[in-house]
Structures are given as structure tokens and as C-alpha cells.
Amino acid sequence: MKKELAFSIVKLNPICISKYPIIFQPDLYLEEGMRLKMKAIEIRNKYLNFFKKNGHAIIPSAPLIPENDPSVLFNTAGMQPLVPYLLGEKHPSGTRLTDYQKCVRTNDIDEVGDNRHLTYFEMLGNWSLGDYFKEESIQMSYNFLTKELGIPAEKLSVTCFAGDEDCPKDEVSAECWKKAGIPEERIYFYGKGDNWWIAGEEGPCGPDTEMFYDTGKPACSNDCQPSCDCGKYVEIWNNVFMEYFKDKNGYTKLEQKNVDTGLGLERMTMLLQGKETPFDTELFQPIMKKLEESQKVDNIESRRIVAEHLRSSMMIISDGGKPSNIDRGYVLRRLIRRMIRHLNKLQINLDELSTLIEINVENLKEMYPELEKNKNLIKTVIIEEKDKFVKTLEHGEKEFSKAMNKAKTEGKTKISGEVVFKLYDTYGFPPEVTSELARENGFEVNIKEYEELFKKHQEKSRQGSEAKFKGGLAEQNEQTISYHTATHLLNAALKQILGPDTHQKGSNITTERMRFDFNCDHKLTEEEKQKIEEIVNKWIEEGLEVTVETMKKEEAIKSGAECMFIEKYPDEVTVYSIGKISKELCGGPHVKNTSELGKFKIKKEEASSSGVRRIKAVLVKG
To answer: How far is it, in rounded angstroms, from Cα 6 to Cα 475?
Structure first.
């Protein structure tokens, strides 16, 4: 498999609960006596235990913030942390894996508040790394849905790849579904736009088969089927069969065929409980009820935004996120500030935030014990950000006054959309507040102009987000693999110069450079930087062999292997050693010998945060 290629995800599961607005009629789609009230955690446990019984190793969810993956801001899908293994690395837990993965997707933050969009969600998944393929995967999916969850088989429809000039019709999957119990009339075939997954322009790819739940909503036409926009059918599971490799010459069969699946927990919980939205399930009900009790102005959209953004913010903070003005820090800041704006809209005292956090921790601690562990940190971060934003709102009001006075002197009675947008974009000042202030002072607001500017901004943000959300297969090529290996050498060199208590605090790798954060109480001197460079380059010149072995996690730690996020690793781990100078738990991949790296050069050393320094460095080959 060609690891030197840079990859990007072309097809991802939808970031929302459903593609289309859905008005559920619970009595229609689950017969009386069949309606299940299974909680989300019960569904999760059933899923993991079912696949464990079928020979899968349960592996822990990776943190929301990816390690050594600059292509995304957050883990966006279950496959993302498993990329090295889908590309051929051996997973220490074997060839059959299952887990739940915490995910954040941010393309449609502004859409949260309707009955379907979520920023944070949980994806259940099972993988075959060159083990079973279509027949066993489909049979297990069918058995889980019908036997474990008790979904009537007649409620299920499936889709398969229709075939084209590149690859044949996926008759194998269709026959597997028939054998499992789905009649031919509920098996549909679609093209690459619906039932094909590929990693970038070139790379591993293959057909997928999707499972749809019939909500019981009346058909919109005689030709109503899963591809229809009416919302009768809801996608609940997607099995991807990676059996081809595409390059400039076309498609060839892969030697190692993988299966990658994804099932959204919130969506399944909502369906099984006969609820209209995920906000009606136990995942959100305690916080929704508290908001309804506390509000002075009734607004269901604002309640959903507060509930969703609070949960998402808490999960991100718990996994190490901090508000800032760039990348994932900006996403977190945006979530918190949008939440605060809607608390104001509900006229809920902002001092209630601490109580709301307590309610969420208590409600979600069984599913996410890390929330209880990090409760004080979560409170501190959110309340500090709230205090900053309150000042921002005050500043925004002052800027509005300036704009209004300028309009008066020019004899205008309308505030331009450009002013409204600037207040929103620069100061985070809500446009509805600008409109309200304008009305109070006898002014109108050019909302149409604002909406046009906002639409352009939204499209630009979406494009930027899509670039960031290429996925876990992006940027994994010869150069990034070299930088990944170099972080191990730098970590070892820092210990020699600064002391054995120096540890990695984070890293970020692109094809152009590596970034490495480490604990340190002072700015590095020129002499220290020079010594670090010399040590790393000495090890590169020595041509040290990079080896990998699998062992028990406890055994690895006792042997002196270092790692970040020890809790994310399974019981069996991979340990990479570079000669006798470095030993770390890591998922890889790495070069085979340090002589492949080139010359190491520190370009910049700076503060990252309190007690943490950052080195930016490059590898020059040739």
C-alpha cells in the first residue's frame, strides 16, 4: 500500500443527525408493544459486547484532540485514530476491533438549534483489518439491528453500489443482504456519489452499503426510496468495504481488504426511543428541563443551542482543549460564546452556568467519567470565557454607538449590513442585539446586506473547515512520517539537555515542519538549542535502527517506554524504539532508520502556555 501519498477523506458520514428535517410519528414507526426505551449507554454496551462476542477487541476511544494529525481540528470519525492500521500497520489488539469514538464536526455550528444538528456526537464502529469481509460484516450488522436492538426487519432497507465503468455492481453485498433476511425489493443500488468511499484522489477505496430505517412517515411518491429527500428513510449505519486502490492508472484490487463501519449513537437512541429529536432523549433532557425552568423568555431553539454547545464545550475541555483565536481553540471559544448569547436571549442569569455544568456532569458521568474528573477545570475555563465575553459584549455596544452616531451625522436612518457584520465578526456581537439597539434608537438595520455578507463568510468558513477536515488519511506521507520519527529524537535530546523530567506536551506535524511542545520553566538559550540540534543530528548520522514490538501496556511502562494520554491505549500496545536512545508508546508510522531523516534544524523556540515551551523545526534532505 502506498503510504507516501497524501490522503483526504472525500466521503464522511453526515455531521448532523439526519440529512433532512424529520417530523417523527412514534406510533407509526414502532408498533405498540415494540417500542424500546433503551438508554444510550445500554445501546453502546450492547454494541461493544455484541462485537466482543464476535471476536472483536474493545479498544478505548481516542481523545477528541488528535495526536500528531494536523489535518483535522478534532477526531471526526471512528476510523481517524485507526488510520495507520488501515494503511497496513499491525494493531496490537489484532485484526478485529470495536469501539465508541468521541467526535466533533463543526461545519454547521450555525445550524445547531434545529431538530437534528449536533456538534459533538458519538460514533460506534467495528473494523476488520484484513480479516472478515462483506458477508460476515453484513450478517453481523443485520443480527445486531434485529436481534440485539429488536428492530423489526421490515423497517430496514439497504443500499449498495450500482457499478460503473471503473468497478462492477456490488452484487456480492446485495446477495449477502438477501441471505441475511432483506428482501430484494428493499435493496437499492446507487452510484459513487452515494455508495462509494475513497481516500482522496488516489488511495484505498471501495463500495459501501448503508442501512436505512423506515420512520413510518408516508411515502412522498410511488418512487420514494432511501435516496429521497422527504425524510421517510433515516440512515443508521454505514459499512465501507475497502477492496480497491485507485491511482492515475485506474483501480486495482487490494491485498489487504478492510471493513470500516460507523453507527451514530445519538441518532439510534432517538429512533429506538421514538423521540422526535436527540434533545428529547436522556442525553439532553435534564439540562433542557433546567433551562425551561430558568428561562424568562421561551425559545426552544436557544435551549437546544445552550444544551448542545455546553455538552460539546465540556467534552472538548475535558480532552485538553482551551479557548483561543485560532483553530480548535477558536471553535471552542465560538461554542462557548454562542451558548452565552443564547442564555442571554433566554434571559437566564449567567451565574447559572456553574449549576448547568453540574447537571451535565451528573447526567453524563456514567458515559463519560472524565467529565467528573475534570469538572473543576471545565467550570474554570467556561466561566473565565464567559467573563471575557461579557466584556466583549460591552465593547460591542460602544462600537455600535460609534456607528450609530456616524450614521446620524451623515443623515442616515439605517445601519449598514457591513457594520452589523463587523460587530458580529470582530466583536462577537449578536446581530439580533444590534437590530434591537437600532430599533430602540429609531434606526433600521440593513439585514439583507448583512445576510449576504454572512453567507459569504459562512461559505469561506465552510471551505476552510473542509480543508481542515480532510480526515485522518490526510498528510500521511514520507515527509510527515519522517517528522513523526524526529519528534521521538527531539524528545530524547531535550531530556539529555534539560533533564529526565522533561516530557512531551503536544505536537503538530505538516509536510513543511514539525512543532513540539514540552514542559520547561525558561526560554532556551542559544547554547541549549545548538546542543539539542547537534545531538539529534548525531543520532541521525549514526543511522539508528527504528524497531517496533507489541507488549502489555503495564509491561511497556515498566520497561521505561514513554507516552502521552496513557488512558487512550488498549491493554496491548505498540512500542517504538530508536536504538537505545528512545522508547515510546506510539501508533506509528515511522521510518526504518534515522539515516532517512535528513538534517534537523530548529527554526523557532517560543512559549506555548504557562510552563510549556514550543519548538518549531524542519528536516532538510539532500
So the answer is: 5
Q: With the C-alpha atoms ordered 551, 555, 557, 558, is the resulting torsion angle positive or negative?
A: negative
Residue bearing the bigger pLDDT, 6 or 102: 102
Please say if the pLDDT value at position 280 is more than 90. Answer: yes
Gap between the Cα atoms of 354 and 376, Å rounded: 10
User: What CA–CA distance (Å, rounded) separates 595 from 543?
Assistant: 4
Q: Which three cell numbers stand for residue 609?
A: 502556555
* DSSP 3-state of 395: helix
Buried b / exposed e along 99-122 (16+ C-beta atoms within 10 A): bbbbbbbbbbbeebbebbbbbbbb
C-alpha to C-alpha distance for 523 and 614, rounded to whole angstroms:
10
558-576 pLDDT, tens digit each: 888 887 666 666 777 889 9
Single-letter amino acid, residue 74:
F
Residue type, 501: D
Q: What is the dihedral of CA 344, 348, 350, 352, to 10 degrees?
A: -150
Spatial contact of 295 and 359, defined as CB atoms under 8 Å apart? no
User: Distance from CA of residue 418 to its chain's centroid?
Assistant: 33
Residue (of 587, 540, 583) closest to 562 by Cα position: 583
Strand partners, 237: 211
- Note the pTM of the prediction, 2 decimals: 0.75
Q: Is the pLDDT of residue 604 over 50?
A: yes
